[in-house]
Amino acid sequence: MPGDTKLETADELWDLYNDLERLKGYKYTQPIVSDSGINNEKFHMELPYEEIKQIVEDCRDKFMSAVPKDEKTSLRWEHVGSTSIKGMPGAMMPDALLIVPQFPPSKGVIQAFLDSGYYFSSSSGLDPKDLWWFLVFTDGLLKDHKLTVHVVTEDNRAANMLLDTRNMCRNEEWAFTDYKEAKIKAAKGSWGEYKKGKGSNSKLLVMLAEKYKQK
User: Fold this and answer.
1) Predicted TM-score (pTM) of this structure
2) Contact of 13 with 120, CB cutoff 8 Å
3) 173-186 and 191-200 helices cross at what angle (nearest 10)?
4) Which of 10, 81, 177, 184 stands 20 to 30 A from 17 (CA)?
5) What pLDDT, on the 0 to 100 scale, is given for residue 213?
6) Which distant-in-sequence residues (6+ apart) come within 8 Å of 166 by Cβ?
7) Measured between alpha carbons, how far is 156 from 74 in angstroms, rounded to an integer?
8) How far apart are CA 127 and CA 121, in angstroms?
9) Which residues of the chain carry a pLDDT beneath 50?
10) Residue by residue, what is the 3-state secondary structure of 2-54?
């Protein structure tokens, strides 16, 4: 089933974000077809942590340079997901949060994404106020992979789960071991099974899902 039409202006996206019912149903897909035979869903037991960390920081700096000057201090960028945890296995598809002061994000923020080469795909199926922007890498270490930036407010449930997962795995050995083992077990299945299984197999993620349960 084909997705929705790509929205390419700040005005179009602003209108979409202000219509939550329309936003819930919107999904634009842009599959990556590698001309180099790269499998971007490959599970890596060892990820190049420092290299990916630097790439994500470079993406942050480029994006922030495109944000209007008077908005920069109100934004917070956080590298999250497996690539933000040294020694954690996973796919070479980094994730970041852009924490904004309110929903929807300003037209200046939206335009900064567009000017920096990102496209908007959809909101999360769990929360329409978790906006998913993608940047496809066309060369270098992450060629034919993509960066996902979740645009959220600081009280967003999914964002806080991602932050807690990162922070606990960095600082608590049991959390790191639990999540690592859950990911390795889930990676034996398909990509869809991996994405689903790494959460259901992890005591850490089950605990955090309960902590941030929607009321």
Assistant:
1) 0.93
2) yes
3) 150
4) 81
5) 82
6) 78, 79, 80, 81, 84, 85
7) 16
8) 14
9) 1
10) CCCCCCCCHHHHHHHHCCHHHHHHCECCCCCCCCCCCCCCCCECCCCHHHHHH
